[in-house]
Amino acid sequence: MPFKAVIFDIGGVVVGSPLFAINKYEKEHGLPFQYLNVAITAQGHDGAFQKFERSEMDLYTFYRRFGEELSNVEKNNEAYTKFCKSRGQEVPKLPNKLHVDGRELFGQMMRFSSQVDPKMRTAITRLKASGKFTIAALTNNFASPTEVPSDAQGSALKAPSLEEELEHLGLGQSHYELRKMFDFYIESAVVGKRKPDPEFYKHALDLLKVQASDVVFLDDIGPNLKSAQKLGITTIRVDSSDSTPALAQLSKLTGVQLLDDAPRPSSKL
């Protein structure tokens, strides 16, 4: 059966991965590789990052809570120790104390993930031009700030203006151009659910008026892909450092030439 829709994750797929910005922050602050990423995941369903992506927390409360959670060395050292042992890795020296500025880190994450992968841009353009597919984004994101409270908990002594805060988060013109690339731009902050919650995928299927078997879904995170697979969605894992293999696979599935230096796919549609 021919596919009717292609759904793309955004961060780490269409744009740079915020994980790289986290790794850079870790290196700059003498933290073990993946320490903060493990800490974010360890907060679970009710962590600041997770709640923020469901619009259950405003930006400035998030900055404060995010920083507090990532500065909790007792909890995060325990989580990282388990992480290392589960992979048979030696546990490196862990911090005795830590102060993570939530606004500074999150800003770095968002600015790093604001640049579109040129290969992905070309692929999306060609898929749309074929006229065969609905093109959608399914992203865990956050609601853009619309005002800055006088007591905003930022890094600066004086609260930044709204324009400064949007720039800090990489929400300039390029962000709005990114959204225009898709027929549907489906956001966790709007829906109130986030990947890998199956209900978030079901919402997307309903919105696009397609069945799970009609869809190819691209993401860079394993649990997000597994959740989609359980619903019957065909998935492709994207390597955030090189999208070429994923796009070659997508070309074969769609029958559309997505890479310039690749054999023309033989469509099964």
TrEMBL record:
Question: Which branch of life, at top level?
Answer: Eukaryota
Q: Name one Pfam family in it.
A: Hydrolase
The stretch of residues making up the signal peptide is: none
Q: Please name the SUPFAM superfamilies in this protein's record.
A: HAD-like
One GO molecular function term? Answer: phosphatase activity
Q: Which UniProt keywords apply?
A: Hydrolase
Listed Gene3D superfamilies = HAD superfamily/HAD-like, Putative phosphatase, domain 2
Under the heading PANTHER family, the entry gives: HAD FAMILY PHOSPHATASE, HYDROLASE, PUTATIVE (AFU_ORTHOLOGUE AFUA_1G12880)-RELATED
Which NCBIfam families is this protein grouped with?
HAD-SF-IA-v3
- Name of this protein: Related to epoxide hydrolase
Q: What organism does the UniProt record list as the source?
A: Ustilago trichophora
